[in-house]
Amino acid sequence: MLHHGSYLNFEHEHDDIFGDIDGGLRTEPVSSVPKRAPPTFTSFDETIDNDPERAARTIMITKESRQLPIIGQGVVAVKIVPGQALWIALSTESDPQKVLADASDDQVDPSVCIVLQITADGAQFTDGFRRNSVVTKEVEAIQFRGTSSNHLVPGVEDTYWVSLSKGGKQAGELRYGRTYRSTTCTLQLANVGQKEWVEQLKYVHVLSLQGDAPKPQIKKIIIDRYPIVYDLPPIIADNNELTLLDIDINSKTSIANLNPVCQRLYANIAGPAIKVNDHTFPDFTDAIEWGIKEPTSMIYKRLLAKSGEFSGDKPKDPPTEVDKTTYLRVTLGLDEGRSPGIPYVMEIWPAGHQSPIHNHGESYAVIKVLHGEIHSSYFKDLKEDKPIPYRVEKFEAGNVTWMDPEHYQVHQLRNLHPTQVCVTIQCYGYSAKQDQHDETFTYLKEQGGEPTKDTDKFVPDSDWAFHVFRKELKAEWEEWKKNNKKEL
């Protein structure tokens, strides 16, 4: 049985919030810590905002424990508006009150709980809750020093997750991450080894200290049966092309490994007949290249009109040159109500053009390059102080890539080719389990060609319907060719 307690290290009026519990990283003997009133516990459902003094000392806890589907392994992700501290506990004890109950030192079982604690100052793993901090030891963890921080921001919604492995080389491996459940978003990595008590961890408890922050609100608790070990690569290989080496070094993935939403989207666009040029318009891409450069063309005019769409820079009114952060969206079909906007979009990327850094509203997506090449830079989230991609991939004509709500969700597309246009087909969808659809993409505004910290919403709209675009461009192109035979 474990005592209620914490490693929280407050350096303001809430210091020693847990009475005689040591405050986090300090090392003085327990006897030197002044005794204060112990914390109180309540459920997330109870309202205590009208009692600031009580709120400052109240830890909210989930009424009932959740269970890991497979004992000793899995992922727990908590989407929450946190207070001043958050704990995610994996325990052998189902009753949260017993997990936090008072007991004397000789009753303490040192092997019944793994706790991830996150505060505004950082995060750490411990082997349980204890009234005496000299008893509980911190689990040593590797800190991934990147552009994302491992702390929480009181009152700001985010997803915090912990992953536990029990088999193979990863036995006893603990991961903590934020926002997306993937290895690239891992902020801390620890290993407690292959121990019998770790393999018996079954129950999940979530706690949050309100302190002087707004009341903590749990939006969602997700429990996955499999731990986070590696991320599937972003490129999809045809089943006839996937090799043993691809599987071994994780360089490509089969569509069979992806969510059924991605499988459905892939099946619709992966075929050889999904291409730009066909027998009825064999120089379609030539017409697009011409339209990008020809000031009288419908393409050039639309690009000019869209200049400044994603930029913090104010373009001239009317704009006199095309902004490099512009691209065209040519939609196919209708909005079916299961995607952010119309699910199939042909995007046209002139040479040297790029998108802003953006997310995709937690949607699933499959992207096929139809012509040219495109670079995709992947980012951990939109909250980084200085966005630095953790991975950059070049996709060429015929390549297919993907994303889902937890992987490759934030990226920037760039056509780095000096002269050639890139044409892609983007396909989006939501799963049947997603009851809330975010019909917008969030992006970082740019200024002087560089991302700022300011975000904005983009509604996935349409510049043309595909059949209209194709018909009008073909007529425009044929007319130009007829009048300019000498230039061809």
Question: Can you characterise this structure?
Answer:
The structure is a single chain. By secondary structure, this protein is an alpha+beta fold. The chain has 2 domains: 30-224, Jelly Rolls (Sandwich), CATH 2.60.120.200; 235-487, Jelly Rolls, CATH 2.60.120. Helices cover 12% and strands 30% of the residues. The chain is built from 7 helices and 26 strands. The protein has helices at residues 52-55, 96-99, 244-249, 260-269, 284-293, 298-306, 466-483, and strands at residues 40-43, 58-61, 66-67, 74-81, 85-91, 113-119, 122-126, 138-139, 141-143, 158-164, 173-178, 186-191, 203-209, 217-224, 235-236, 328-332, 344-349, 364-371, 373-379, 391-396, 400-403, 410-414, 422-429, 441-447, 450-458, 464-465. The strands form 5 sheets. Strands 1, 2, 3, 5, 6, 7, 8 and 13 form an 8-stranded mixed sheet that branches. The chain has a 7-stranded mixed sheet with strand order 15-21-18-23-17-16-26. Strands 9-12-11-10-4-14 form a 6-stranded antiparallel sheet, with no helix packed on it. Strand 1 (40-43), helix 1 and strand 2 (58-61) form a beta-alpha-beta unit. The model is unreliable at 1-36, 102-106 and 131-136 (pLDDT under 50).
